[in-house]
Amino acid sequence: xxxxxxxxxxxxxxxxxxxxxxxxxxxxxxxxxxxxxxxxxxxxxxxxxxxxxxxxxxxxxxxxxxxxxxxxxxxxxxxxxxxxxxxxxxxxxxxxxxxxxxxxxxxxxxxxxxxxx
Length: 117
Known about the structure:
The protein has four helices and five strands, in the order ββββαααβα. By secondary structure, it is of the alpha+beta class. The strands form two sheets. A three-stranded antiparallel β-sheet has the order 2-3-4, covered by helices on one side. It has a two-stranded antiparallel ribbon with strand order 1-5. 15% of the residues are buried.
């Protein structure tokens, strides 16, 4: 069995997409909290490009931080699991998670929406 490819979900907005600081916002969640990734977290995010598996991400990050893959693998795997749990990443051919919405947002008249005044 091959390892699944990791990819970013399509409903995540990314600001500052570099290897030092990245801000992520789930556009499907009206109450979403921005996620700030800095340092190694931003570096890991930059390596997840939709073409690499977890072992490939680990190898690439290990090379970039000049550490053995066995040393960084547990922390990277835990971080990736956290991002999957937050619906920021998906593994393999999984579809993007169902967008999160609230009944209030769906039933609010357009005239009451922010920016419509």
